[in-house]
Amino acid sequence: MRLADRIAQCRTPFIVQSLTNHALTHLNGPADFAAKIAQCPTRYVLSDDLTRLCTALAYSKGARNLACADLLHVPSERVWVEWCEAAWLSELQLYGFHPVAKPAGGSGRRGVLIHSSPGGRCGLIRRFWSTGETDLDLFASSMEAYFDLDTAEGEEPDPPDDLEQPALCVSDTVNQDLGLLRRCFRFRYERTWADYYRLAMLTPERQESIAHHALGTIAVDIPMLMAFFLLLSTRTGLPRRVPALERLNRSRARAGKSPLLEHIELLSPLLSQAYSAGVGGPTMARRVPRLHHVRGHLVRRGSQVFWRVPHLRGNARSGVVRTRTVTWTIPG
Length: 332
Fold this sequence. Notes:
alpha+beta, 2 domains, eight-stranded mixed β-sheet, 15 strands
């Protein structure tokens, strides 16, 4: 089942118990978003190929999301986006990320709920994920991200509300191409989580450790998400299909089950043969030593964005790459 459906049907509150005084605390969790996701007017589900492409666009050597910041916008004031965690993790590992844990059986899913301004240039993001098949296996990030894509260099994005609490900035001193994350995004604890940690009277070292872990549940998704919105804003958009759920929902209604939510499935705009050949490079290179994998490159010229797809270089008999360059045009 899609992550959006599971959260929309979730009724189990997220409650924690103190180990010292056994007090119960209700923290903001998936069940608190059931109605919001059920009523969200725009829900996107990314195919595995599109998930891998967006991750490569975000993290491959030569990707320059900051150069495309003026082309980015969230397409609606309320948007849900979800994808398969296994596809996302497999692509991240190609670019040096080594996650501690993987979803059991590759069944985990990730998703974000975005509330944005009418122009889609600023807003608030909350991230969700699943690790199993019950309500207890649904999670919401303790941190939320707010952003303003019009933030000038040297300034900071303004929070979308009057909630006054410290905000964290994420930067990468090695990969300066992730400057969009540093300049335009800030991260903070959701209100109930901020109160919970404040009352816990943690040591500074423990506070820092928890903050780093909490950031890891949301910050790493942001570049991939921005790459997705960049592709979505191209002149031709992304290939899509809308599943027909009427018959299935009638059957579910007769069985006393909740109807599945309508959503749009988005596919990769690249030829699957070309992209699959690119990501399969390292495996083939082990069989033929002279064949090697070349990472993708993202270049902008005016209103056009060029993506030189990951490709193989070496002995052509070991595989043929039909095209290495894809051009996307952004409407002016």
